[in-house]
Structure formats: structure tokens, C-alpha cells
Amino acid sequence: MSAAREIAVGLLVLGVYVACTQAFAGDRPVSDAHGRWLLDAERWAHLDAERPLNDLLARHDRLGALAAWEYATTYVIGTFGLLGYLWWRRSPVYAWARNTLILVTLIAVCCFALWPATPPRLLPGEGYLDVIAVHHPVATWGTGVVSAGANPYAAMPSLHIGWVAWTGVVALRARCGALIGWLCALHLAVTGLVIVATAAHYVLDIPGGLLLVPAAAGAERLRAALVRRRRDGDRRVAAADAFFLHVESRDVPQVVGGVAEFAGPGPSAADLRALMAERLPNLPRLAQRVRPAGTLRRARWTDAERIDLDWHVRELDLPPAGGRRALDDLVARLVAEPLDPARPLWRFWLVRRGPDGRDAVVVLLHHAIADGIGVVDILRRILEPRLPEAPDARGPGGLARAVAAVPGMVLLGLDGAAPAVAITGRTGPDRGFGTLTLPLRRVRAVARAADARVTDLLLALVGEVVADVLAARGEPVAGRRLRAAVPLTLRAPAPPGRGRTAVPGNLTAALRLDVPVDGRPVRDRLAAAHRSAERRRRSGRAAASTAAIRLMGALPPALHARAARAAYRSRFFGAIVSNMPGPPVPLSMAGAPLGDVHPILPLADGVPLAVGALSWNGSLHVAVTAEPRALPEAAGFPDGLARAFDRLARELGADAGPGRGGARTGTP
């Protein structure tokens, strides 16, 4: 700590002590009764040395004055002199000494409040001479019968003894030498005689004061253990992150990320590896791997002994003739492979597409590292230019979320299973991936025309395409709804011109929103989806979902895994739809400017469809991840979404700007 901070801490502790000793208005008869009880106990045990020693000082004024001076000064000089010396020498014992001194003081204050006892010199009818008041030392604090810092309820334990005993223990711990040790012992003996002779304390207050030191040492040991536990707990995989470790399987890898095309040639693999080597110290999760959970041991983040950037950053060639379709097919193959749990859970793939195609980079991270917006924040810390970071602000406080979660829990339970929709089914290992890019300004104009959110618009478009799929299959659609899991971020928006701190982890709530998949017009579908979504957003279900995830995390790992897998499957939702804000400015990677950036979302058990949207540099980049055996129609999803958007714009009369020709699509 700096000197200013140390002084501030010292003044704070002193303020607490003075406030408690002076402002505490105890029951004086009770305090007097406790004092007489101590005196009676000493007389019974033949320990009552207060009277003869006090009479000795009463007969010898000079000895009384010396005792009063010693009582008022030496324990303060010795205590803070030693503490200041340790701080000046930057002794490794200093932190322990400072903390235990604070604890000695605070424990004594608690004792005074819980068991007040009047000192002998202030005990009515006992006739002790108040030596300190008679021989008030020059240049010491206090006036009148009671010194200004003294407490008429603070006999047991003796804080004088506690502080002086503390100096001896600290001197031994700091190896100050035999001479200092003997001086501390002498100081303790003299202080014991003085506090009894001045009738400031009882003899029994001496062992009480001595016990303050081991009590403070024990409290400091407990505090340090809690700090270590909290620090280790920070390395424990949080419940919301462990959730995605538990729901992962060979057929359902939990991989998030993005695929970005460069505006021109991409950087070299060596340049990208150098960039990652530079950025990794500020992105700790990318330098850690997961130590798996056991029967009772929870999963933890552990520092990787070695990060093989040649493995994490790979380069491959893709024939340019396939166009965007070939790139999407490559992404589909990459996301179908789980990441290696023995390494940090991320990989970058540099894709070379020859002179006739734009290079690309595929960024893959495990969902346990971050949610979708967390991935965007991590990428922004990697890309240039370096933006100043905003504080790690989050959404509503814990109390507000807890209050909202109470009714939300009830409603969440009443939601029950998701409506049956024919597209759900067992998820296999294969993946399809397709992309769509829409002008962001036009998307927002259409959403405003419908008085809805962009997320609601995205839900309606997905519902429109699923309705077309069901109609083409000849499935009955009357009254049918698709329930989608929609993540809601708990991260506060970044101020203009600044980026959020790249805080790892899943800081999201989840809503399950319904969109009709019958034959109604897409405009009516959007209106119905918006009404349903607004009711659920206000219902407390989002806070309840966060609370449920945390409650699951309190279970033993095996039960946590079972609960997570039971909750994250097609029984409760049939699709995943996520809308994520990205940077509104162009960015580059290792000096190479980026163009389109599409998000990558994972699937859930039995849920064959995930649609993610990312606003980035003036466009809404939509990506569709699908399981092709359960949803063979997914190949047409990007084009279907583009057609549905055009229909919606026409129905709302918001068709200004480029038509479908302004959308760029790829297919799973």
C-alpha cells in the first residue's frame, strides 16, 4: 500500500474505535455489576492486587506521574513505531502485522460492546485513586476525570495489554533480534503493573488482553483462507460456464465464435500468431485449460504450461471456385469437432482462398469461455485499433435480479415443456452452416415501422421460414408455435467510442419466447411475437433463469451435469435465436482489414436450429447453424430469411432502400 492509503486505513480504524468507545451508551448499572463481578472473582482467587498497587502510587506522586505517563504513551509509541518501521523496511511481515493489529482493536471493541465492564478507578464506592486523572501527563490526550479516548465500559479485555503483546509477537515474527524481544517482554510486564496500579484495569483484564492476540491471529488466518478460497474460486469454473461443459457431447459440441472475411489478402499465420502472443496476457481464459470436474471436485481453470500457437493458429487452403458456399461448408465441418480439452479451448483457422477469393479467418472458442457478446468483446481486444475500455459494468444489481426472480421462478415452472414442433429431433454429429447479410439501417427501419425490436423481427423471420418448412411437409400448423431460447446479455452497453472490458464468462439470462408458425402473414407473425416477448421480458423469467443456473451450480458436479443436460434440450425449446451488438466501425486483424463477420452458435440436444445475428460495421450479419438430418430444409434457410424480410418490409410499407438484391446469402 502507499503511505497515504496506509494512513487512511489507520485513521479509519481509529475512527471506528473512537466512535464505538465514545458513542456507545451502555447500561452503567450493568457495567458496574460486571466490574464488581471481576473484583469479587479476583478476591476469591486471591488475585486482587489493585488495592496495594494503587495505594503505592497514591503515596508516591512521582511514581504515580511516571505510571500515568507510561499508561498514556508507551503502548501507542511502541505499537505504531514498530508498525511504521516494518512498513519503512518493506518487511514481508508488515501486512500480517497491520491486519492483526486492526483485528486486535476490533475484537476488543466488540467485547466492550457485548460485555461492558467499569474499570476499578471508576467503580462507585470502591475508593480507588484515579492516578491518570490526578497526574495527567503533559502532551497526552484527554482532560477531566476520564481521558478522552477511555471508555467507562472498556475494562475487559485490556487493549493496552493486547497492543503491547502484539508488538512482542510481531517482533518475534519479524526476527527483530533478541534485544528487541526482551525489551518487548519488559514492556509487557511494566504495562501489566501500570494498568493494575493505576486502577485502569483488573488483574483478570491482563489474560483477557493477551487472548486478543491469538484471537486476532486466528481471525487473520481465517480471513487469508477465505481470500485464497475466493481467489481459487475465481479459478473455479462458474456455474453458468460449467453449464456448457456439462451439456457438451460428441454430437453436440459447444463451440461459439465467428467467421470473418478479409477485405483483401489476410495476414500471414506468423503475424496472427505474433498478435495472439501479444494479446494473450490480457486475455487469461485463452491461456488456461479446464481441469475436469470429479465426483465432488468442481471443474477449474488452470494455467496452461505451454501454449502451442502453431496448433491454435492454423492455416489451410480452400479452392476459390466454391465461393461462399465452400467457406460455409468448411465452417460446418470445423464447428462439428469438439475442441481439445487438454489445451486452452480456442482455435483460429486462417483460410486461403486463392487470388480469386477473399481470405477469411474462423474463430472458435468454447462456450464455457464466453457467451456470444463476450466473444465479441474478446475479439475486439484482439483486433485493431485498440479501443479504451469501459469499466466492467453489468446490468441490474443482484438485489434487483433476486426480487424479480421470485415471481419469475413461478412463471418459468408454469411454462412447462415447449410446444411440439416437427423440426426437433435427435441431434447427430453433422452440421450445416449458412449466412445472410442485411443492411442494418434497413433492418432497424423495418423494426421501427412495426414498433418492435430487432430481436423480435429476427424471431418472426425464423418463424416464417419454419412455417414454410412445416407447410411444405404437410404438417398441421393451426395454432402451432415455435419456442426459441433467446439469450439476454447482463453486460451494460459500452459508452460511445469505447469497448467493454473483455470479461470472460457467460453473463446472460435466457428467455424462451414463442413465435407462431401457422399460415398468418409475416407482419401479424411479428406482432404476435413482439407481444409475447414483451410480456415475458417483464415477467421476471430472465432473472429466474439466471437464478436457476446458479442454483444448479450449487449442486455436486454429477448432479449439476444431470440438471444441465435435462434443462438444455428440445423438451423446453426448439431453436436458439440470438441477436448481438457488435462494433459500428471497421476493424482489422494483424493489419488486414475485415469485411463481413458472421457469428457461430452451437446447437443443443435435440435442437437442430440456431440463428445468430451480429450487427457489425453497418450490416446485420445472420448465420444459420443446423443439423441437416433433422432439418434437411436448412440449406434454404438463408434465402428463406431474406425473402421473409422482403415480404415483411413490403407489408409494413418500409421498403425504402435496397431490396433483396441488397442481401448477400450463403447456404448451409
TrEMBL record:
InterPro entries noted in UniProt: Aur1/Ipt1, CAT-like_dom_sf, IPC_Synthase-Related, O-acyltransferase_WSD1_C, O-acyltransferase_WSD1_N
Domain Inositolphosphotransferase Aur1/Ipt1 as annotated: residue spans: 36-217
Every O-acyltransferase WSD1-like N-terminal domain range: 239-389
Chief place of localization: membrane
Membrane-traversing stretches: 66-88, 100-118, 153-172, 179-204
UniProt keyword terms in alphabetical order: Membrane, Transmembrane, Transmembrane helix
Location(s), subcellular: Membrane
Tree of life domain: Bacteria
SUPFAM superfamilies: CoA-dependent acyltransferases
Membrane topology (UniProt): Multi-pass membrane protein
Residue ranges of domain O-acyltransferase WSD1 C-terminal in the record: 505-648
Cited Pfam families: PAP2_3, WS_DGAT_C, WS_DGAT_cat
Entry annotated with the keyword Protein biosynthesis: no
Protein name per its UniProtKB record: Phosphatase PAP2 family protein
Organism the protein comes from: Actinomadura fibrosa
